[in-house]
Design a protein that fits this description.
By secondary structure, the protein is an all-alpha fold. It has 18 helices and no strands. It is globular, with a radius of gyration of 22 Å.
Length: 463
């Protein structure tokens, strides 16, 4: 009897915290596991790619890190719109309106495609002014590498936009395995091509740019093929994805545009702190790049939970199960915080072999460890409040509030404190990261207060 009770305990625990009227824990696990694998592959392959490009020298890895801060800033616009699509699709799925699920999926793809083409063209045309304004103080070899990578990145935006839109729609209806498959096509081909172009042909940053484009457009083609030929339940055709349904466009933008504005301001603040770091020298840029890559490893399970909660809460709100939405959000907060203890312990225990992959100069290893130790410890109590909670609020349609808080906290605290602690104080790069960690705490406290009230779930997004 006691053995039977022991066997039942995990199931009873999962039922208590991860099952409700709108969704059960087996469904939730089916959503989460593919996203976890996806995040692990994305971060792991990014780790490998950063390590590979570091073999071309500190100038190359610094250039890629600088441009990627701008890439994240711009790509976040159409990723935000794709997230808006995820919310709309999830709420229609929760309400049982299959016809509108298909229309919202098509609307997500057309909206994101238009935005990604426009942003990519603007960046390709104005790449030199952008680089001069943002990173004009960088060393000449760093700047030359950055120019090549920025042009290559801008050309690839349509490819990554289509993939993000399709994956966002698929996550909204709970088909996270399909989104995992498409993500793996893009990221695995990227790594294999990098091995060929960087390690095999020694093309450096140019090879990285070519690999980026080939992998993203390959995945985009596979995404469209999947929706038309494989997943026929959505009944989508090419003309559905090209045609812009303005009614659906407005619904998606209701969530997507505030989030896009938030991401632009948020990542704009990151770019400004990146400019601070550029002024601290090439070694500081390298420390920041390596720490950011390792921090992403620590965040793998938490990021997967952040994506999962959008679908879960979106479907709960669609079926008007408010208590489920509250319960699951709290469960995800605790689970996310616990995940940081586990992943942080692994990364810190493997610190030396992980850092050795990047071939850093010996004089910056202590700085890398100091930043990683501080950030890993701070993430345990603060990251989840700052990222899981707003994902849940946004899934309920509370996008304006979450966006406004994120924008204000970034510029009032992270940017200002980053300058004071990173530039004016002797802390340097450690001060920039400390400012980021403090901003998480402030933002998380505000989001938690909002979640404790009732306004966040009173928005009417779908009919």
């Amino acid at each position: 009897m006691s053995q039977a009770l022991v066997k039942l305990r995990p199931s009873a625990l999962l039922t208590k915290y991860f099952s409700g009227q709108s969704i059960s824990y087996p469904q939730m696990i089916a959503l989460f596991v593919p996203l976890l694998v996806d995040q692990a592959f994305i971060v792991g392959l990014n780790l490998i790619n950063t390590a590979m490009i570091s073999s071309s020298g500190v100038a190359a890895v610094s250039a890629v890190n600088m441009v990627d801060s701008l890439n994240i800033f711009l790509i976040s616009v159409f990723v935000a719109v794709a997230t808006g699509g995820t919310v709309v699709v999830a709420q229609y799925k929760g309400s049982g309106n299959n016809s509108m699920v298909s229309k919202s999926a098509a609307g997500t793809i057309s909206s994101v495609s238009v935005l990604s083409v426009g942003i990519g063209l603007l960046l390709a045309v104005f790449h030199m002014p952008a680089l001069n304004i943002l990173f004009g103080s960088a060393a000449p070899d760093v700047f030359d590498n950055a120019r090549v990578y920025l042009i290559g990145s801008s050309v690839s935006y349509l490819g990554i936009g289509i993939v993000e839109a399709v994956c966002g729609a698929l996550r909204g209806i709970g088909r996270s395995r399909a989104s995992l498959f498409l993500s793996l096509i893009m990221n695995l081909s990227y790594v294999l091509l990098n091995i060929l172009f960087i390690n095999g042909m020694h093309m450096g940053v140019m090879g990285l740019s070519v690999a980026l484009n080939v992998s993203r457009y390959l995945a985009a083609i596979c995404s469209i093929y999947y929706l038309i030929k494989v997943d026929t339940n959505l009944h989508l055709k090419i003309k559905d994805m090209i045609h812009v349904n303005w009614t659906m466009f407005k619904k998606i933008m209701f969530i997507g545009m505030p989030f896009a504005a938030e991401q632009m301001f948020f990542n704009g603040g990151k770019i400004l702190t990146q400019i601070f770091i550029v002024g601290l020298g090439t070694n500081a840029i390298a420390v920041n790049a390596i720490c950011a890559t390792l921090a992403n490893v620590v965040q793998i399970p938490a990021n997967a939970l952040s994506l999962t909660v959008i679908t879960v809460v979106g479907q709960c709100i669609g079926s008007r199960s408010i208590e489920d939405a509250r319960k699951f959000t709290k469960s995800f907060l605790w689970l996310s915080s616990l995940s940081f203890i586990f992943t942080g312990a692994i990364v810190l225990s493997l610190f030396n072999p992980l850092v050795a992959m990047f071939h850093p100069p010996g004089e910056i290893i202590d700085d890398i460890f100091a930043v990683m130790l501080m950030n890993t410890l701070v993430q345990i109590p603060l990251w989840s409040l700052s990222f899981i909670t707003p994902s849940a609020l946004r899934a309920a349609g509370d996008s304006k509030f979450t966006s406004m808080v994120s924008m204000l906290s970034m510029w009032l605290f992270r940017v200002v404190l980053g300058y004071i602690l990173g530039v004016l104080s002797p802390l340097g790069i450690l001060g920039v990261w400390l400012a980021m960690d403090l901003e998480w705490g402030i933002r998380g406290f505000i989001f938690l207060r909002r979640f404790s009230g009732e306004k966040w779930y009173q928005h009417k997004l779908i009919d």
